[in-house]
Specification:
The chain has 157 residues and is mostly helical. The chain has helices spanning 10-40, 46-73, 82-88, 101-129, 132-153. The relative contact order is 0.19.
């Protein structure tokens, strides 16, 4: 851990960094799922879904940046490497053969639901150990994830 003038104790910062790196890995994994759907979606709703998946990718990329920057602010190292993502993310492998738009919507909704749950659990944990700023960042992330679930689910009606 790097030295910092951040006034949170080293113990708190260490716990936050570990938890945030787990959230970061899942966020990056979710963003890659969005791009996979964006590239491969087919069907009557192609254009709207193609753009929606790309917009979700952009937002998830912004979220990962916020999370990674908080890790570094705490004196940690943000680990967004492929091995870290593979080890830390709890998302299932994206179904590469999927083409139908509604299959992509269903899968990506599941991805976002899992990531949203991870973010909300981390909000509670980070607040309890004393990092309200990290909890606030993840509250913003959670709100955005819920918005994309809503957008996607509207295609399933």
């Amino acid at each position: 851990m790097y030295k910092t003038k951040n006034t949170l104790s080293e113990e708190v910062r260490t716990k936050c960094i570990e938890r945030l790196n787990n959230v970061l890995a899942t966020c990056i994994d979710a963003s890659l799922n969005a791009k996979q759907a964006h590239w491969n979606v087919k069907g009557g709703s192609f254009m709207s879904l193609h753009e929606l998946f790309d917009d979700a990718f952009d937002s998830l990329t912004e979220y990962s940046d916020l999370i990674a920057e908080r890790i570094v602010q705490l004196g940690g190292i943000a680990d967004g490497t492929l091995p870290a993502i593979k080890q830390r993310s709890i998302l299932k492998v994206y179904p590469v053969g999927a083409a139908d738009g509604l299959l992509h919507v269903e899968h990506f909704c599941n991805v976002l639901a899992i990531f949203g749950r991870i973010a909300r659990e981390a909000i509670d944990e980070l607040a309890a150990i004393g990092d309200a700023n990290a909890a606030d960042i993840l509250t913003e992330v959670s709100r955005g994830v819920d918005k994309y679930i809503w957008f996607l689910e509207s295609h399933l009606v």
